[in-house]
Amino acid sequence: MTVTVRFAPSPTGFIHIGNIRPALFNWLFSLKTGGTFILRFDDTDLERSKAEYAKAIENDLAWLGVHPHRIDRQSERFALYDKAADVLREAGLLYPCYETADELERRRSRARALGRPPVYDRAALKLTDEEKARFEGEGRKPHWRFLLPNHDGDPFITRRTDVSWTDMCRGDQTIDLASLSDPVLIREDGTYLYTLPSIVDDIDMGITHVIRGEDHVANTGVQVAIFKALGAQPPVFAHHNLLTTRDGEGLSKRKGALSIGSLRDAGFEPMAIASLAVLTGSSQAVEPMATMEALQKKFDLSSISKSSAKFDPEDLNSLNAKLVHEMEFCQVQERLISMGVNVAEPFWLTVRGNCGKVSDARTYWQAVHGPILVETADEDREFLAAAARLLPEGEITSETWGVWTGLLKAETGRKGKALFMPLRKALTGLEHGPDMKDMLPLIGRQNIQARLP
């Protein structure tokens, strides 16, 4: 069997680190199995779906290293959904309902008050042609429900009907169709809800595995029934846990702060984001993978925990820093140049260990090339004057710092922070940073002398 998977976002906003998780799971699964990855835009909501959001999603995926083998848009496939709806109608499995939202809510409230589950009672199946015509005459438009196969011929006498599947993340799962309401597939205005277009596309595109969030587990029983009603074999399902903050907050509420675009603009590395999104909530250690190939080797659906995948956005900082610390000069040279930091390899090798992001190199570029504006404390003026006088002659090398501070210690009696900090601040404008023995040759004699009194 050739594996085919899909990621089906709605282009009604920007994707964030939470909903990039299923995109990465599907992409990595396709890489691992030599399969096909389809990007399928769920853009049937023509009012809210925007071309600019779809383009942004494509760009975000590409930046992360996800390259779809095929891109489809549901807005171009309505004829297929209409045909499937007709098939279900002709089979007596899609029926019109005329209740308003208020009427349905009153029925649910009444059922709860009587201690019954708020399951739709299929009252619309009892409507006569005359009653339907009267509703139509009042201006009511029907919504259409799928008749679940949870009965033995009389839809008003339901029986327990288990739909079971072996979930690649959650193991054996069972949903009782008798506990569910017949799902609405078509709204009053004739537009489709997510369910039918998704199933029709999965059938038409030959989707073999549906990998998605655990919030869809309850929907799976219904969807399996619709697959079978359309004469198709359901795909294999995998429902992974959802990313939340450590407080359990859903990430959809934090789209702005954690959107892929905003994280990119903030200077985070794509593989730091991908590593966090994939490995959090699994039995694997959350560590930065330098490439998608390395992450693919570590990725395993069976390692996904059944408990929630809580993470702290601050974790992204440490993952990012670890990646940056290992980056070779050739990986960052063009980016540094684009930032106005035109440096040679020794500079990057000196500063990368202190960079949480590649853009932090600009701080150390400024420290090397200046100008440096530092207000010297009165008690350090004499000390810095001695430093200027005791600066060793000759070429500034990595040995110079040790020799220089040794001379200063012997003359002034200073040691530790009192010895090193005034020099570091005067020479770099910073209180912390790379080892000064390595920074000193980059700063050079001319700048050293210019920055000391």
Describe the model.
The structure is a single chain. This protein has 453 residues and is α/β, with parallel strands linked by helices. It is 45% helix and 12% strand. It contains 19 helices and twelve strands. The chain has helices at residues 20-33, 51-64, 78-90, 101-113, 129-137, 195-204, 217-229, 255-258, 260-265, 270-279, 292-298, 315-325, 329-338, 345-351, 361-369, 378-390, 400-412, 417-428, 436-451, and strands spanning 4-7, 36-41, 70-73, 94-97, 143-146, 162-167, 171-176, 184-186, 209-213, 236-240, 243-245, 309-311. The strands form five sheets. The protein has a three-stranded parallel sheet with strand order 1-2-3. The protein has a three-stranded antiparallel sheet with strand order 4-5-8. It has a two-stranded antiparallel sheet with strand order 6-7. It is elongated and about 105 Å long. Catalyzes the attachment of glutamate to tRNA(Glu) in a two-step reaction: glutamate is first activated by ATP to form Glu-AMP and then transferred to the acceptor end of tRNA(Glu). One of its GO terms (biological process) is glutamyl-tRNA aminoacylation. GO terms for molecular function: ATP binding; glutamate-tRNA ligase activity; tRNA binding; zinc ion binding. Residues 3-317 form the Glutamyl/glutaminyl-tRNA synthetase class Ib catalytic domain.
What is the fold named in CATH at topology level of the largest domain?
Rossmann fold
State the fourth-level CATH superfamily of the largest domain. HUPs
Quick one: biggest sheet?
A: 3 strands, parallel
β-strand percent reads 5-15%
Radius of gyration: 31 Å
- Taken from the alpha-carbon principal axes, the silhouette is elongated
User: How many helices in DSSP terms?
Assistant: 19
Cα end-to-end separation:
76 Å
Q: Could you list the spans in which at least 5 consecutive residues all have pLDDT below 50?
A: none
Structural class of the helices, strands and pairings? alpha/beta
Question: What CATH architecture of the largest domain would you give?
Answer: 3-Layer(aba) Sandwich
Helix content range: 40-55%
CATH hierarchy class name of the largest domain:
Alpha Beta
In total, the number of strands is 12
Mean pLDDT: 94
Keywords: Aminoacyl-tRNA synthetase, ATP-binding, Cytoplasm, Ligase, Nucleotide-binding, Protein biosynthesis
Catalytic activity: tRNA(Glu) + L-glutamate + ATP = L-glutamyl-tRNA(Glu) + AMP + diphosphate
Motif ('KMSKS' region): 250-254
Protein name: Glutamate--tRNA ligase
